[in-house]
Structures are given as C-alpha cells and as structure tokens.
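Appendix B. Extra example for self-study. Work through it before the problem class; the solution is given directly after the inputs so you can check yourself.
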Amino acid sequence: MARIVQKFGGTSVGSIERIRETAKIVLKEIENGSEVAVVVSAMSGETNRLLAMANSMSENASPREVDALVATGEQISAALLAIELNNLGVNSLSFSGGQAGFKTEGSYAKARIKGVDGDHLIAHMINGTVPVVTGFQGVDIAGNVTTLGRGGSDTSAVALAIALKADCCDIYTDVDGIYTTDPRIEPKASKMDTISYEEMLEFASLGAKVLQTRSVELAMRYNMPVHLRSSFNLIPGTMVTGEDSTMERAEISGVAYNRDEAKVTIKGIPDQPGIAAAVFGPVAAADINVDVIVQNISEDGFTDLTFTVPSADFKPTMKLLESLAKQLNAREIKGDTGVAKVSIIGVGMRSHTGVAKKMFEVLAKENINIQMITTSEIKVTVVMDEKYVELAVRSLHDAFGLAQAA
Amino acid sequence: MARIVQKFGGTSVGSIERIRETAKIVLKEIENGSEVAVVVSAMSGETNRLLAMANSMSENASPREVDALVATGEQISAALLAIELNNLGVNSLSFSGGQAGFKTEGSYAKARIKGVDGDHLIAHMINGTVPVVTGFQGVDIAGNVTTLGRGGSDTSAVALAIALKADCCDIYTDVDGIYTTDPRIEPKASKMDTISYEEMLEFASLGAKVLQTRSVELAMRYNMPVHLRSSFNLIPGTMVTGEDSTMERAEISGVAYNRDEAKVTIKGIPDQPGIAAAVFGPVAAADINVDVIVQNISEDGFTDLTFTVPSADFKPTMKLLESLAKQLNAREIKGDTGVAKVSIIGVGMRSHTGVAKKMFEVLAKENINIQMITTSEIKVTVVMDEKYVELAVRSLHDAFGLAQAA
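Solution. Structure tokens for the complete assembly:
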C-alpha cells in the first residue's frame, strides 16, 4: 500500500468550494488504495489579512506574536478540510504544527524544521484516519509557535513525507508541472515528466516559483520523490527525483530566465588582496543577495568588479557602494536595471561537451550581446540586455531541441 | 503588590482601535503597581464568522474540528493585544489555552477546566511580563484543542486568577456593574457596590448575562473576588465576593425578571408514586431545562403537573408531552407562552422574615395574578402573565426601597 503526503496551497483551500474539490482529490487517492496525510496552506489571502492586522497594530510587531497570529491561518484551513473529508465519509483529524510533531529551531518568521515526530500520525494513518496538518509552522523547544517563512508549506510537506516514511510527496498547485521553458514566451514549451533535484534547484533559484528551494534540498537529502501536479486535473505532472542513471539524457532539460535583475559595476579600484571581501562583506551584511560576479583582468594595478543583485535591492546596493567607493578609492560606480539572466539547465551537460559553446553561438547568431557569463556543473547563465529575453529563450529552446520532447 | 487578572470580552478587542483602548487599561493597572495577567475573548463577530464557515462546510461538522477552528479566534486577539502592549513599552507574551497550562476534560464545545498549571506564567509575571491568555479554551489529556462553550472566557479568567493566586479577577464588560433591577424598566435602578456569589448566581440564572454562572460558581468555591466593571470608564463596578457578615443587609438586593419562559400543564394524571419521574425523565433526556415545577393537591386520585421551560424549548416539550400523555393516561396537555418570571433576590432574606409575604402583597395591590411560586433560601420567584412584568418590577423595586440605595 502506497503512503502519500499530499500538499495543497492557498488557492486549493481558498474557499468552501475549493476545499470541497480538494477533499475529492484526497478521496480519489484513498480510493486508489493509498494511505494519505495532507498538508495545507492558509486560505489564499488569509496570511496577508493577518499580517495587515499586525501591521496596523504596530510597525514593529514582535515576531513571536506575528507568528502566533499568522499560524492561525493554516489551522483554519486544516480544520475545514478535515470537516469536508468527514462529509465524504473519510475519517480525518486536523493537527496544528505543534500537534503534528513539528519541532523547529531558529528565529521567528523563518524557523527551520529540526525534526518531525511522526509516530502518532503513522498510528492514525494505519487506523484509516487522514491527518490534515498545518503547513508552514511548528513549535520551538520552549513551546512557542514558530513559522517557517513564506512558502514553508512545501518544506513542511516534504519533511512530513520523510517522517512518515511516505513513498511520495505530492505537491498540488495551479500549474501542471515543470516546463522546458516559460510557455508564455515559447508556446512550444513542453512539460517534463521527470526532473532531477539538482535541475529543480537551478530552476527554483531562477525564480520558477512552483517549489521552494528549501523543500527541494530537503527532498534531495532524503531522496524523497516529489510529484508536482495540478489540483485542477488528475493528469500526472512532473516527478522530481534523483538522477536516473540508466536513461539517456538530452543535452539540456530546459531554459530559464529572470528579469528581476540589476547590474552594478565598481570601476577602477586598486587590484589588491582583500578587495572582494571589502566590497561583498558590507553587501552581505546589508542582506543583499549577490548573484553573478565578474572581476575584470587587472590593468595598471586597477580592476573593475561587476555583479548582479535582485532589482528590489538595486537602490540600497547603489547607496551602499557610493559610500564604499570613497573608502576603496574607486573611480566610478555604475548601475543598470535593464538587464536579465537567461540560463540553460540540465544534468546532461555532465556527459555532453560543448553545451556552453553551443549556447554562445546561438546567441551570437541572433546578435545578442552577452554581458556576463557564469557556469555551474549543470547550468550556464548569461546576463544580457533585458529586451533580448524572449528572443534568447526561443532560440535556445529551439536549438537544443526541447520543443520535440512534447 | 497586588496581582490582578483582567478579562476583556469581544467588544473590548473588537477592532484595532478598541485593542488600543484595552491596552491602555492594562497599562493603567501596571502603573498602579499591580502584576497583571490578561484573558481575552475573540474579536466580536469572529467566533460567529468561524462557526458560519464550519456550518457552510457541513451541518454535522466534527466537534473536534469546530473547536480547533473556533479556538483561533482568541489566538488572534491575544497576539494583537500583546503587540499593542509592546507598543506601549510593556513586556507581553500571548499564550493559547494549551500554552498557558489550561487542561480540560469532557466533550468538545463544552469542555470543563480540570486544572491550570500557572507556574510558568507566574514566573513571567515576576519578571515583569504581562501574559495575554486566550479565554474559552484549553487542551485535553490527548493534546486536542477544546473549547469551554460560549461565555467560557469568564470561567477561564476566574480559573487563571485562582491558578496565579491573584488578589482579584477583573471582568471588563460593556456594563458598569450589577443593578438592583433592569434600568430599561426602572430608571431609578442603582448599581450595587457589592453582591454575594449566591446572589450573583441567582441573577445569572435569571438571564443577567454579565457573568457566566460557571465562572461565579468557580469563584465562590475558591473565594476569588470578581470585579465586574466597564471597559469604557475607570469607575469601580460591582464587586462579587463572599458574604460580608459584618454588614447590615437590606431585605433584598435586587429584582430580576425573565420573559423567555413558557408554561406547560399536564392535567388529570393518576396521582401515584413515580409519576413525576415518568414525566421529567423523558423531558431531561431531551435536554430540556425545566425550571419552576408545581404539583396540585390530588383530587379523586388525579393531579395536575405544571412547569416552566425556556421559550425555545416550548415546541419540543409540547410534542414530547403529547406522546407521553397517552402512556400516562393524562386527561389534557395545555401550554402557554405568554408568561414571565419575576424574582426578588437577596441574602438579607435569611435574617429578615416576611419578605415573601411582602412581595405577594405588593403584587396583589397592583392586581397582578400569581400563577406559580417557587422559593429558595435567598430568592422568591413568581410566574405571571407576561404583560405585568414592568409593573411588577417597578412596584417591587420601589416597595423594597432599592431606589434609595443610589
């Protein structure tokens, strides 16, 4: 008998009607003969409503109290789904994070899951009861309610699947899987049947919002298969699993992009040891997430440093660098918000050579100027003028033969 | 240093603005030098909103899930009040019933408080922190969230005051105390400075909705003073305490009434042992709360039984009796929904004789016909035609000199 953890997001429990539909999906899985546990998010909009209340109360609301407040959102949807499952003749009990055995550590609003004691939920499941567990929350060692931060429900679901020794963690969402690229840009994009954890991590870090990075990392560590699928139909989605060594892999699996990028350059700084630390230390301290970094070849003892940051961090970054520039004797600070990243991703790169070269040729043929390049074992990323994004994505998707996978 | 538990109802935490006002009341008490713990209800309307969600999900929602759902209401108001107390520079932490140490037993939706482990809250208070505790809820021995039923927050507050060895439990509400009678009927009604637990119980059972009967019983058992006062001003309200033996008591303390009464009569049943049990057994089994009971003197071996029930139970009672009538060979069943109860209440009756006689004389003088009479040690209740209620209340209030207490 398969044991499945099903996770439903805010849209799937966003109204009485949607909860009824969601309960039917659970029932279907039970009728398939599976043992099921469910993880739910708050009804869509509820977390924001609660946060707005905290904010109108105080701009410096205590994180402990905000967590206690926000955690009620999932408790409401969990109870409602359990009620509807009972309606359908399914034994079901709702559990808050603490009741379900989620122990957390770290700070409020971004706690980490330290462990999940799944024994009593397993006992319930063996007795034919479906536990409906609140995602996104747990209790710390002192018994305080803590939340995992936005999107933490995916991580809750994977952690629960591991604790319950489940066969698979099904993440239901409003997309039906991972595509070879964004279908809004390339209509010939096709859905992948499987994707490896490593590839999924690269897609997630590029802003594919279907799965939280933390949840993929956790699934990878415990080799827990994650099935990303739509709550609007019963068509299989994309299975995120370990690499399948027996299968021939294509050169790349997909093309991703991100427009939310800005580029900053520090020109003419003395090229001496410790200069990168002197720049990136203060940047990191300001909680700014630096992505691609390029340091030019030194000329006359001076060099240029260029890096990208999320668009939202552009202004604070420029402000910070302007004050740093004097300290570091830099000649000039330049910024550009009109850039984007385009990446090709695939574990196939490990066995296929010349993938990066092919990418550069494709872009050159389209007269797209590459501003920066960075590579990892399974990804090549280029930074370009934002206006070329669609052209680049379509050309690469076509050149690497991804449309044919459909 | 006085230790005070302050309880605020739904209106006092009904909006961001009201929570700010409530926090000021807490701050004032701290500035008076008291150690304070707070108990809150859900924001007014929130419990009904949550119940409506459960009802629209299912008419037979599992009581366990309804409790888990509804309990979020107080968690929200507790967190918001703690946030506002922090705003005012007061250390404060919110606690759910379970976190605060409330252990319950009995069924969902009407659990009883088995005990409160107040040690860690006392430690917080000694360190200058104000615990804000959710009323109305706790956890049972298996860790399930349970609620105490409507109005249970008063009971939570008294139970917490006992567990924290508080000097007083202040119940803040939208009235400023207990009056000698309903000021809407008798404008000369005056606020009582003190009232005994026993008298308060009689008032509460007559529908004075300011304090739950359960909370008064609990306060009486542990001799915990309860200060009923308004959250709209800082004027002292009515202190509910043990009887003050040193004080000369007036004949009666107040006049109460209840219009939500209906009268039923079973005529001509054989007067034999066990007949009352044969009638009231099935009535009790149907969860109908019988109040005043009168059995006529037997005549020719037959008797009549008359009793009152809450108006809401009138129809099911009549239906039940009609089927019982045949079994019992009763001659006739009669019902009357146009009746009301008027009571005089006061521990002074114990030392003053002739109080009941005086009541009957006052009513006779006004030509008010008494249908039924029942008495307790500190109360005389008469059942009368509903149309006489105002006249009866005013005459009795005047005759017993209650207006002069103002």
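Self-check: Chain B touches chain A at residues 16, 19, 50, 53-54, 56-58, 60-62, 64-66, 68-69, 71-72, 75-76, 78-80, 82-84, 86-87, 93-94, 96, 99, 143-145 (CB under 8 Å). If your reasoning did not lead you there, revisit section 3.
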